[in-house]
Amino acid sequence: MTVCLAQPGTPVLEVLGLRARYGHIQALKGADLKVGKGELVAVLGPNGAGKSTLLRAIMGLTQNEGEVRFMGTRLPRRDPVGAAAKGVVLVPEGRGIFGPMTVLENLELGAYRVRDKAEMQRRFARVFDLFPRIKERLAQVAGSMSGGEQQMVAVGRAMMSEPKVLLLDEPSLGLAPRVTGEILETLGRLAAEGLPVILVEQKAPLALKLACRAYLLSLGRIVATIDPREVKSHDELAQYYFA
Amino acid sequence: MDNFGLVIQSLISGVSIGCVYGLIGIGFCVIYNASGIVNFAQGAFVMLGGMVTYVLLEHYHLPYVLAAVLAIAFVALVGALLERLVVRPLWKRNAAMFVMILATLAAQIVIERLTYLAVDDQPKTLPVFLDLPPIMIGGVAISYQSLWIMAGSLLIVAALGLFFKRTRLGKAMRACSINAEAAALQGIPVSALLTGAFAISAILGALAGILVTPTQYTAFNMGVPFAISGFIAAIIGGFGRPFGAFLGGITLGLVQAVAILSFGAGFKNVAALSILLVFLFIRPSGILGSSR
């Protein structure tokens, strides 16, 4: 199922010539990409290509140059809190869940800015609908759950904030194939319902099944934009990796 | 009074001063958990709590409770300013942790000397909260002030526990101490909460100072000895574990009481540093195990 419903118009999130440095190391040398309503786009590339850096730079977690436009206006640099408050939400690499806290507390913190009780309940219901398994585990300490369940909590926590665009950094990392499938399917469903999603993945075939567009990142640059429907075989994809 | 009564009485006063050390130790933990900084200006909060209450009470003749509340508010403000004016500028420049810790020590000295200039160098004391003769149980005399200290400290610790466990703000602060970056990604205003942690820590210090001053005295340079005791309490409790710091404080108070009773008052500091060494040698992670 490819998720590709975008209507022409301003993209929800647009990245223009984004570069990022860690100290003296230029990890991202220039990236342009965009994602619109109802689109799931994938960012693919080998280890160390700068995929995580790209997402971190979008959030303002790195020193960066270039532009990130959200709904047509520029996001301020180095303000991850502000970006998250506006609705640009990242599920970071390694999930970043609050391990010693309960699942319930993790989810509540995702909706930190919501004070209204009824609204909070509505969001909980929505997350339980996406990940029914979470509901039975609310009192459990999040760090004691399996990797797949932790990833569900991480995505669920992000959904508690009702993001306007969702960024995911390798949600499949270290997970069993079945759980990965389950989570990616949920992401596809979210995108089909209109949520713009940027999915960074090492496992290209999985991501290509869902993506409407894939950006190929290599050595800190986007070297190709791929239409997954035109990728016929793994060999063809491998060419991109090694080109 | 028989010997047994004296022992019990000493132990009770040990527990009550230990509660004060515990509160100061919790102050260390709150800031450490939020930022990784060991705040050596913690003693200044304790001294200011007692001193500002004294000034409002004796010079401005405010009612005791009002003077105490205003003093706590003032010290909270000092704590917040310490974070904004001393810690944050260094933080923004990616200063080494060591530099920030030294900066808090410098702030301690500045606050101490400003207090000296503003007041004087004479020891001051506050009246006890209730001027009644000690309660006699058997042959044991228990002063009302030590009851105030113990009850007050327990109440403060319980309130703090509830704050971190139940409130939205408290949970967000815990989240920041677990993973500040992940907290920021949830839209939690991490930097404002850091200021809040300094303010909470300052409030704890001020409360400790107000509770303890009636049993002793305060002066511009009384902060450091209290900070050292609180620091020891935090270490033997397990650094970064607020409840551990409270237990550590009580342990420290008891050990000091026994030492004074057995060897004389000169052994108070020897006992404090000895128990610290014992913990560092045998159980460096403290009673509850350190948080990081």
TrEMBL record, chain A:
* Residue ranges occupied by any ABC transporter domain in the UniProt entry: 13-242
* Gene Ontology biological-process annotations: L-amino acid transport
Which UniProt keywords are given for this protein, alphabetically ordered?
Amino-acid transport, ATP-binding, Nucleotide-binding, Transport
* Name of this protein: Amino acid/amide ABC transporter ATP-binding protein 2 (HAAT family)
Superkingdom of the source species = Bacteria
By sequence similarity, the record places it as follows:
Belongs to the ABC transporter superfamily.
For this protein, the record's Pfam families field holds:
ABC_tran
Q: Which GO terms describe its molecular function?
A: ATP binding; ATP hydrolysis activity; branched-chain amino acid transmembrane transporter activity
From TrEMBL, chain B:
**Gene Ontology MF, one:** transmembrane transporter activity
- Provide the transmembrane region boundaries: 6-30, 37-57, 63-82, 94-115, 135-164, 185-211, 217-236, 243-264, 270-289
Its placement in the membrane is given as: Multi-pass membrane protein
Q: What is the protein name stated in its UniProt record? A: Amino acid/amide ABC transporter membrane protein 1 (HAAT family)
Question: Is NADP one of the keywords?
Answer: no
Q: Which family does it belong to?
A: Belongs to the binding-protein-dependent transport system permease family. LivHM subfamily.
> Some GO term, biological process aspect, for this entry: which one?
amino acid transport
Q: Which organism is it from?
A: Rhizobium subbaraonis
Its ancestry begins with: Bacteria, Pseudomonadati, Pseudomonadota, Alphaproteobacteria, Hyphomicrobiales
Spell out the GO cellular component terms annotated for this protein, sorted alphabetically and separated by semicolons.
plasma membrane
- Give the UniProt subcellular location, in the record's own words: Cell membrane
Which key words are in the record?
Answer: Amino-acid transport, Cell membrane, Membrane, Transmembrane, Transmembrane helix, Transport
At the top level, the lineage of the source is Bacteria
